[in-house]
Structure formats: structure tokens, C-alpha cells
Amino acid sequence: MPIISIPERKAWVLRTHHVDYVIGVDKNGALQHLYWGEKLALSEDYPEADSRQTWIWETDDGNSREETMPWGRRNFAEPGLKVEFADRTRDLVLQFTGAHIENNMLQIDLLDGLKSLQVTASYRLFDEFDLIERSLAVNNKGDGPVCIEQVMSAIWHFPVYPSYRLTYLTGHWGAETQLRREVLHEGKKVIEARRGITGHNNNPFFAVDFGEAAEESGLVYFGGLAFSGHWKMVAERTPYQTLQLAAGIHDFDFRWLLQPGEAFNTPVCVGGYTAGGFGDASRKLHGYQQKYVLRNGGELRKILYNSWEATYFDVNEENQKQLAEKAAKLGVERFVVDDGWFGKRNDDNAGLGDWYVNKTKFPNGLTPLIDYVKSLGMDFGIWIEPEMVNPDSDLYRLHPDWVYHFPDRPRTEGRNQLVLNLARDDVRTFVYQAVEELLSTHEISFIKWDMNRYFSEPGWPSAEAGRDREIWVRHVHALYDIWQRLQDKHPHVQFESCAGGGGRVDMGIMRFADQFWTSDNTDALDRLRIQWGYSHAYNSKSMVCWVTETVNYMNGRRIPLKFRFHSAMMGTLGIGMDLNQLSPQEMEEAAGYVAQYKQIRPIVQEGLCYRLSPPEQSDLTSMQYVGRDGQEAAVFVFRHAQHFGHPALPVRPRGLEPFTRYRNVETGEVRSGQAWMSRGILLELTGDYDSALIRLYKMN
């Protein structure tokens, strides 16, 4: 039984394969955190709910470790729930009223009896990955309205240690998911997004250790928030040597009006624990995502070609057919037409919102191109950006009130576009119908759904009184609803989440997305750092990586084709370069890499990921994938720049069976797994931007 009730203590042990997470009710009826760590043998091993330290200026409730952390009495920490009642009372006291266990789910009911506000804290266990999904439901059972000012999905409490270290992902457009680690001192460390989408600058992932964990060893607590809009995480270290981390919807500019009888449900926050370091933490998240979160998680992702960098907006039937023919020769499985196929879309100044085929570029519509692509053995995909509108569009001229705006303020444009207000029923209906018609009238198998700006002037003038600040949540819910309805009607269509690169990557949209566009930066060297950080929080199957031009627009580097392909083969492979510029020899070389990727695709997309050598540690970066069946391992090695004639450092694989023999597919050399891992592999990597792919195959 994964959930053990201890009735005499009003406590519950949430037990996974290796971990116990324990909560209990104290003498005041509050739900307290008791323990999180390795499994313990006896019920008396767990702390009591009333065993908190008190101080002269901090009573036991002031030093509380409540699971929901309501703002009331003398709870001074970052609130898990803050409300205002109809009589302007802003004090919330939640007391235990009941518990419900069903399979791997525990629900704890709490009630503010004076105000008839019920809160249900939910815990769902994923035993094989040592993970817990947490969420809150707030139900107004009173007679008057309640205003929710802040609501967190989870408050995570950590054991008392002398030092805490936070790992998180930060960056900006073109440099997403950059890994950072910092020691936490007294006060708050806030990681947030308050621009309407998940964001390029921060990502809703966290890991906490005690300053001693390494890649494959040490105690690590980790997790992420499943939400695609306004969010924040607050790591708060107190002067009393405790640490809590609150994760949920951002309270900035947020209010939610809860009328009598209404309920509000938070997004899920997942958390886990491991004694196996940051690598094991990532592998647990990857496995959980592939099995329970990622749409079509059990299917391999196809190799795609996207025509954007070849034609930009100058797309037409003839040049797309030429590119499709070349892509098919490489072994590509999916051909995607990017921006420029619709409306009066000749540049980024016009056309967004007018989702009809441009008859100048495609006189006979899209069907002849789609038929040609399919005759070449590929399926067809297309780019759209339905949450946006250009002021120079038929849609905007007809419905200027459909965008977020304040009546007396200018409407700030980003990339010459404005954001449609999906909180409105009519806008949501329009977006759904526009995309549904596109899918119903064409044999489209893939949608690249883009979103190329943040929110500004987030007004909703026609909103019901008191509901205008709900847009940060309603927009996300509307997006999820639209994707769900489209997928219910067109289950064969795969969706890629894109927001100017990796601006909308999270476990919320992952339930509806088959894959993510990781970054607009396709420089193969930069991508090593972006993909390294990405791998800490998300699985490789979801990570789309393109091979693009020899000289990349981002940094002007000239990088060999082999290095570019190897960098892109560590996720879901895509090709975005202008194939018309490739020589016959380059086409043959590229086709060889595509064929090689198909051989190792199950290992990369579904295997266990081992990070061997980080980009910033030396001139060598190395990443390894081991098949779920343990039969084969693929090791990618990249040398950025050789200095002083030094040979490349040996690469030491991980995750092999020590006493089993493995053959190096490239050289034929045979060693035991322990020998490969201990002695390492010496490679002749010289000069700048050299790389290698090593395949180790288990021998029977």
C-alpha cells in the first residue's frame, strides 16, 4: 500500500519505491510537514506534528511547516494561500476535517469553519519514480464571494541542514535553460515569470541539495510546476536553519473571484527525492514525463525538415516542392512549411489572424503541395501562431477589441503584433474554429504552434467586475482547452509548442504537446549548453534540435556538418538549413547521419540520460544515452577547441553493467562494462569543433 495511515497520530506516510513523505495534523488541527527522505522502518521513527522549535519572537505557529501555509494568525512565511472574504477579513485558519485514500491518491480536507472555505490538498504518488504530484482545490462553501490573492500548488519543506544550495534554469531568448547553482542565505530567492507565458528568462524547475551533491551522488530534492503562464517559485531560508520552497501561480497582478459554490484548482507541482545525485533526479523526471505527462510519450518522434531558413516569408508551392524532394532524399520523415503561407503575409508586418491560404503563393491551395510531400513518403506539417494578430489584418480591423488592452492607453506592439484575449469566449471560439478548419480541410499531421511576444497592457475591459485580473490563468486554461478539443477531433495530429524558441516549455503544456522547440538559437556549440540545462528538467524526446547553416546567424561561427548533426542528434532531430546550398557530397554525408540517427533514435529518445562532461568544465562536452533494455549505449563527444596540442581527455561512460562485455561498434574493441567506465575512451579529436559518436553494444 503506497499510502499508510497512522490513525492514532492523524498522520500519513506517502511511500514510494525508495522514499517516505510524511504529513500529520497538530494539536491545532493544522496539516504539518513531518518528514521527507529515505524510507524508515517504524512508525515511531517519524517526528511528531507538535515537535517544532519555538523562539521568544517566534511561537510554534510562527515557525510553522504547514503543508498549505495559509496566511493568517502568525504565519509569516511566503503564503501558500491568501484570501480576502466579503467582510474584508484577510485572516485564514485551516483545520483538518477529513482524509480520503484511493489507490495512489491522498486527499486531505481542511476548513476555515468561520468562513466556510474548504481547501483540499491532493497528493498523487508515482512509485517507480519516487515522485509526488501536489495540488490544491479551494471551494467556497459560504454565502459571500471570496477573493483569492495568492494560491500555491505546493509548499515543499526540507530537512534542517547547515547549508542549502538551489539549482535552477535561467537565460533569455536564444540562451534558454542555462544551468545555475547558488548557495541560499537567509531571505528569499524568487524565480518567476510574469509576462504571460512560461518565459525564456526562467523555467519552473528546481533542485535543492545541501552543497554536497554531485552528478551521480548525493541527496537531491527536485521538481517542477506544470503551468504555462504567470508563475513563481520562492525559496525562503529562515534564520532558524529551515528552508521552504513555494511553487504556483504568480500573485503579481492576479486576483480570482470565487463566488459561493465555485471552486478553484491549482496546477500540479511535482516533487521528488533521490540519494543518487542530479543525474538520477533528471532520469526520474524523464521517466515520469514519458510515461505520464508527455503527449504520445510512447511513440518515437519523426525526423522533420522545416523550410523557414531556406525561404523565410518567400514561400510558394514550387520552392517548397523543390525542398521537399531534397529532404526526402536525406531520409526525412516530415516536411513542415513555416511562416508566410497565409493571408497577406509577406513579412512580419501583416497577416496574423487571417488564417486562409495566400492564393498568390499557392494558387491551387495547399493540397497540391501536401499531395506531393506525401508522394515522397513524408507527412506534412505547418506553422501557425493563432494567439496573435497583426494590426494590419482583416481580423483586427473587424475586432480591435479582441486584444488585451486598456481603453485609454496605447497598444504596445511586439514583432508588429498584439495578443488576442483568450479569456473571451468569442476569441477562444474563433481560434479553435480557425485551426479546426485548417486541419479538417487538409491532410496535416503536424502543427508548429508559435507565440512570438509577451503580454503587455493586460486589460480586459469587458470583463465582469472583479474578474479582469484572472486573465493570467484564463488564457492558459483556454489554450489547454483549445489544444485538447483539437486533439480529440484530430488525434493523429502532433503538436509542437514554440514561443520564439523555448518560451513555453513546461509540464503543463507538455500534456498537450508532443515536443518543444527548444530555442531559436541553432548554433551547434551554443546548443550544447542549452540542451545540457534542458536535460536537467525535461526528457530528450521532447527536445527538438535542428541542423542549420554552416555559418550560423547567431554567432557567425563556421561549424562542420558532423558537429552540427551530432549536436542535433541528442534530441528529436530536425533539419532547417537551405538544402539547395548543399553540394552532392554534403547531401550524401547528411543522409548518412540521418540513417545513423534512425538506428539510435530509440536509445536517445527513450533511453536513460547520463551527463558525462559539462560544457563549461573543459574543452570537452559529453552526453550518453543507454537504452531502456540496456542493450546499447550511445555516447556523444564534442571538442570545442584544442589547445597546445593536448589530446582530448578520456570519456568515461556510465550506466553499463560492470561484468558484461560491450563492443565498440565503430572500432570493434571489446571490454567489460567496468573497463569502459573506469579506463574511459580515448578519442582523436583535434582542432576546433570536432566530435564523435560512440556506440557500445552489449554482447550475449
Automatic annotation (TrEMBL):
Q: Which residues form the active site?
A: 450, 520
* Xref: InterPro entries: Aldolase_TIM, Alpga-gal_N_sf, Alpha-glycosidase_related, GH, Glyco_hydro_27/36_CS, Glyco_hydro_36, Glyco_hydro_36_C, Glyco_hydro_36_N
The biological process GO terms on file are:
carbohydrate catabolic process
Q: Name one Pfam family in it.
A: Melibiase
Glycosyl hydrolase family 36 N-terminal domain location, by residue? 29-259
Mention one GO molecular function: alpha-galactosidase activity
**Coiled-coil regions, chain positions:** none
Give EC number(s), comma-separated: 3.2.1.22
**Glycosyl hydrolase family 36 C-terminal domain ranges (all copies):** 621-696
Q: Which reaction does it catalyse?
A: Hydrolysis of terminal, non-reducing alpha-D-galactose residues in alpha-D-galactosides, including galactose oligosaccharides, galactomannans and galactolipids
Where does this protein hold substrate?
Answer: 173, 338-339, 415, 448-452, 498, 520
> Which keywords does this chain's UniProt record carry?
Glycosidase, Hydrolase
Q: Which family does it belong to?
A: Belongs to the glycosyl hydrolase 36 family.
Which PANTHER family does the protein's record reference? ALPHA-GALACTOSIDASE C-RELATED, GLYCOSIDASE FAMILY 31
What is this protein's name?
Alpha-galactosidase
